[in-house]
Design a protein that fits this description.
Elements (H helix, E strand, L loop, with lengths): L1 H26 L39 E5 L9 E8 L7 E8 L10 E3 L6 E4 L4 E4 L7 E7 L8 E8 L5 E10 L13 H16 L1
Antiparallel strand pairs: 1-2, 2-7, 3-6, 3-8, 4-7, 5-6, 8-9
InterPro entries: Ferric-chelate_Red/DefProt (IPR051237), Reeler_dom (IPR002861), Reeler_sf (IPR042307)
Subcellular location: Secreted
Protein name: Reelin domain-containing protein
C-alpha cells in the first residue's frame, strides 16, 4: 500500500514538473523582447527545438507577410519625430516584433535615430535605443512607437521590422515607405502675363496725365 502511494505521489510530482517545464519553455520563447544579439541581423533566436539551443535556428517565412509598417509622415527633419505603427491583418495577430530605422537598400546594418519606449504600450528599447521591441508576448494587432531622427539630415531612411506570429512563424525585412528631409524650398510666385500688361498700362496712363 505504501509503495502504491509512493508511486502515485512520484507520478504526480513528475506530471507537475513536466507541466512546469513546458510552461517555462513556452514563456522562454520571447517574453521580454528581442535579444541584443539580434541587433545586427534582426533574426529571432528561435531553435527548431525550443528547449535545445544546439538545434538549428528556424528560418523566416518567405511568403507575403501578414503585417505592414506604417509611418505618420515621409518628411523628416533633424530631431523630428515620426510615429511608426506595425499593423496586422484581421486574421493574424502577433506576439513579438523588432523595429529599427536603416537606410533603404543598405546592407551594412547601420541604425539611425532613437526610439522612445512607453511602458504602457508593452514595448522596450534595444541596441542603445536604436531598436525597439515588445516587452511581453501579449497578442496584438497594432503597436505604435515614436522615433526621433538624428540631429543631422539623413536620406532614404526606411523602417525595417521583424514580426513574430508565433514561435515557428515569423517574418523579416518588412519595410515602411522611405523617409527623406523635406525640401523646405519656398515657392516663387511669378506674375501672369495679363497682370504684367495691366500694371504696364496703368503706368503709361499715369505718365500721360
Amino acid at each position: 500500500m505504501t509503495a502504491h502511494i509512493t508511486s502515485l505521489t512520484s507520478a504526480r510530482v513528475s506530471f507537475i514538473l513536466m507541466v512546469t517545464f513546458l510552461a517555462v519553455g513556452r514563456v522562454r520563447m520571447y517574453p521580454n523582447g528581442a535579444p541584443e544579439e539580434s541587433c545586427s541581423d534582426m533574426i529571432p533566436l528561435h531553435h527548431a527545438d525550443e528547449d535545445n539551443s544546439n538545434t538549428p535556428l528556424l528560418q523566416p517565412q518567405t511568403t507575403t507577410p501578414y503585417y505592414t509598417v506604417l509611418v505618420s509622415t515621409t518628411d523628416v527633419e533633424p530631431n523630428g519625430h515620426v510615429t511608426v505603427t506595425i499593423s496586422a491583418d484581421q486574421s493574424h495577430d502577433y506576439e513579438g516584433f523588432f523595429l529599427q530605422a536603416r537606410r533603404a537598400n543598405d546592407t551594412s546594418g547601420t541604425r539611425y535615430g532613437t526610439f522612445t519606449a512607453d511602458s504602457s504600450n508593452n514595448v522596450t528599447t534595444r541596441c542603445s535605443s536604436q531598436g525597439i521591441t515588445h516587452s511581453n508576448n501579449v497578442e496584438r494587432y497594432n503597436t505604435s512607437v515614436v522615433w526621433m531622427a538624428p540631429s543631422t539630415k539623413v536620406y532614404n531612411i526606411q523602417f525595417k521590422a521583424t514580426v513574430v506570429n508565433n514561435y515557428s512563424i515569423f517574418f523579416t525585412n518588412i519595410h515602411s515607405q522611405v523617409l527623406n528631409p523635406s525640401t523646405g524650398s519656398s515657392a516663387v510666385v511669378v506674375p501672369s502675363l495679363g497682370l504684367s500688361l495691366f500694371v504696364l498700362l496703368l503706368r503709361l496712363i499715369n505718365h500721360v496725365h
